[in-house]
Design a protein that fits this description.
Bound molecules: cytidine-5'-triphosphate
Number of strands: 22
Structural class: alpha/beta
Number of domains: 2
Number of helices: 13
Distance between the termini: 28 Å
Radius of gyration: 27 Å
Strand order of the largest sheet: 13-12-9-14-17-18-20-21
Length: 399
């Protein structure tokens, strides 16, 4: 649910009291939540409770009573990337099935372009009635997804099927449904990120300014699209809390090489965004180097080029993506790396572009593909850049 924009619509059923828990669980799972409700739903739960939990205003009328402003249901419908109607009464379901539009919830439903999930709540006979079942079938034929009612004690004192599904079950149902549609479901991805530290002596190293933000954002986006991710990370201050991402901490180029080769063997996607040291000291002093001489020489030897090595062992079903960080002759150098390292895509970021590179939360990239495409992008947040890169990977897979 992370970063999803969820519009929760509440209608007048006793199950509306469970909406508070629903909002809490959605927020906890990382979603952004806005709530709308019918006028009569306010008899069951207050807008104040819901606005406090969702941290957003709650609307129920076409105009706000205080400011007299129009509540833009079209905008609300387009804002959402998922609409959840819970609880959905027999009355609302019937109106949705026939296109009646006499309240804000129904107008927003008609304006929404996103997937709509509906959790019915009513008494057992109302639920079993042919007209309700027919209406639910009609909504399914529109592409709406019904979260089946559960069986148990009902507000009427009767026992049977008609209870709104429990909030935990609603969320599990939605997550399950969404994960089935994820384009990278079943794929394993390797991502390298961050700098490497090459020790000179026990207290000093040669490093670089890479923050790891770009690689971490790519790992998160790949996981959001359904992939299982192995993130081989040099030293960074970043944290990730996502069960689909396993972080393998490494310190220097040699360790990063070893772990990358290991995880590349099980991966179908590899994105090498780490700023790997190109040189490492030929020997590491076991004692702290004393400042007895006016100058010292540190001898360096080349590290293994991970991208090039993976390019050499790459199989047909694997996609390999590298970066090119350039200050001049950008396109020429990027295309050279694409060819020489046998990559399928090279993501160029030029340090000449303002806002691009290690220090920033933004980046400006151009993607070059093996098939000859050149795709420039404007300056964006590293999260949005990650999404562009992952979208391009998905396109390559389907090509
Ligand atoms: N790379 C790597 N292993 C190395 C050096 C670089 O895997 N030892 C990868 C980087 O992660 C990146 C790509 O190679 O995906 C290009 O890195 P970059 O620093 O731009 O270029 P280099 O190949 O190091 O060449 P140069 O420094 O001469 O530009």
């Amino acid at each position: 649910m992370k970063s999803r924009k969820i519009l929760l619509a509440i209608t007048a059923s006793i199950a509306a009291y469970k909406a508070a828990m629903l909002v809490r669980l959605l927020i906890k799972s990382g979603a952004e939540v806005k709530v709308i409700m019918t006028e009569s739903a306010k008899e069951f739960i207050t807008p104040l409770t819901l606005s406090t939990l969702s941290k957003n205003p709650v609307y129920s009328e076409f105009t706000t009573s205080k400011q007299g402003e129009w509540v833009n249901h079209v905008e609300l419908g387009l804002w959402a990337d998922l609409m959840l109607i819970a609880p959905a009464t027999a009355n609302t379901i019937a109106k949705m099935a026939t296109g009646v539009c006499d309240n804000l919830v129904l107008a927003t439903y008609l304006s929404a372009k996103c997937p709509v999930f509906i959790a019915p709540a009513m008494d057992l006979d109302m639920f079993a009635h042919r007209t309700t079942q027919k209406n639910l079938k009609t909504l399914e034929s529109f592409g709406n997804i019904i979260i089946d009612a559960e069986t148990g004690d009902l507000a009427s004192g009767l026992t049977g099927k008609g209870r709104m599904a429990e909030p935990e079950n609603i969320i599990a149902f939605i997550e399950n449904k969404l994960s089935k549609n994820k384009p990278l479901k079943g794929k394993i991805a390797l991502v390298t990120a961050g700098p490497t530290y090459e020790n000179i002596d026990p207290v000093r190293f040669i490093g670089n300014y890479s923050s790891g933000k770009m690689g971490y954002a790519i790992a998160e986006n790949l996981a959001e699209q359904g992939a299982e991710v192995f993130l081989v990370s040099g030293p960074t201050n970043l944290k990730i809390n996502n069960s689909a991402i396993k972080i393998i901490d490494v310190k220097n180029a040699a360790e990063m090489y070893e772990q990358s080769v290991k995880y590349f063997k099980k991966s179908t996607i590899a994105v090498l965004s780490a700023a790997v040291a190109d040189y490492t000291p030929t020997s590491i002093s076991s004692n702290k180097i004393k400042k007895s001489n006016d100058s010292i020489l540190v001898n360096l030897k080349k590290t293994k080029d991970i991208l090039k090595q993976l390019g050499a062992i790459k199989k047909q079903n694997q996609i390999l993506i590298g970066f090119a960080l350039e200050t001049d002759n950008e396109e020429k150098n990027a295309l050279k790396k694409l060819k020489e390292k046998n990559a399928d895509m090279i993501v160029l970021n030029s340090l000449k572009n303002k806002g691009a590179g290690f220090k920033y939360d933004t980046n400006q990239i151009t993607i070059y593909t093996k098939k000859g495409a050149k795709i420039p992008f404007p300056l964006k947040s590293k999260q949005d850049v990650a999404s562009d890169i992952v979208n391009q990977i998905i396109i390559e897979f389907n090509a």
